[in-house]
Write a structure and sequence with these properties.
214 residues, alpha/beta, UDP N-Acetylglucosamine Acyltransferase, domain 1, 2 domains, five-stranded parallel beta sheet, four-stranded parallel beta sheet
């Protein structure tokens, strides 16, 4: 009896017990609405993205971002029956971008403006949100740290620069105007205006703007 209680699968795992941060996490975006930036129209947003990619429509990063915009835009089509062909088109193109470009960027990620994905390949961007003017390089991963914590995915704030091979895992926040070094593994919050590197990543440098420096 005691042994059965000790291994009862219905009881939470030790790392899930008494973890108020995980319990307070809001639900993930269900993908039932258009979450493109509301301060700019769809076509204007695509043109801005094209300028972000130096007017080169053949960059896989642009394909991924443009498809993300399209995936959100279609969610404003009502009724759902009229949306069906657009959704089918999105699914086919999503598979092609992942296959050819090696970039996985679900439309359920809240994506800011002027996001630049440099190069391509081995990129998985499963985050709650990615802010404006973020730069992301190849072999970057945003996602969960454990299969038992599926809601625990990262938040990337504005003007973050992500080095190649970086992993940002779990319910962490990468603060605005920060830099993540190549091959860093981020499993804790990174404050704004900082540079983090290493495994696990730690802050190695501060870059406060001049007006806030002593």
């Amino acid at each position: 009896m005691a042994l059965a209680q000790a291994i009862d699968p219905s009881s939470p795992a030790p790392h899930q017990q008494n973890n108020p941060r995980l319990e307070m996490l809001p639900p993930l975006n269900p993908g039932d609405k258009n979450l493109n930036p509301s301060d700019i129209g769809f076509l204007a947003l695509l043109l801005e993205d094209l300028r972000t990619y130096n007017h080169n429509p053949f960059e896989p990063g642009f394909w991924a971002v443009a498809l993300h915009r399209y995936g959100n835009w279609r969610m404003a089509i009502r009724p759902k029956l009229l949306r069906a062909p657009f959704s089918l088109n999105y699914r086919i193109l999503f598979w092609l971008v992942e296959l050819v470009g090696g970039i996985h960027l679900p439309y359920t990620v809240r994506l800011g403006r002027r996001v630049r994905i440099w190069h391509h390949g081995g990129i998985v961007l499963h985050a709650r949100s990615i802010g404006d003017d973020v730069h992301i390089r190849h072999n970057t991963t945003f996602g969960i740290a454990s299969r038992s914590q599926l809601k625990a995915i990262p938040t990337i704030e504005q003007r973050v620069d992500i080095g190649c091979g970086a992993c940002v895992l779990g319910s962490v926040t990468v603060g605005h105007d920060s830099q993540i070094g190549a091959n860093a593994v981020v499993v804790a919050d990174i404050p704004p205006y900082s540079t983090a590197a290493g495994v696990p990543a730690r802050v190695i440098k501060w870059s406060l703007p001049e007006q806030t420096q002593p």
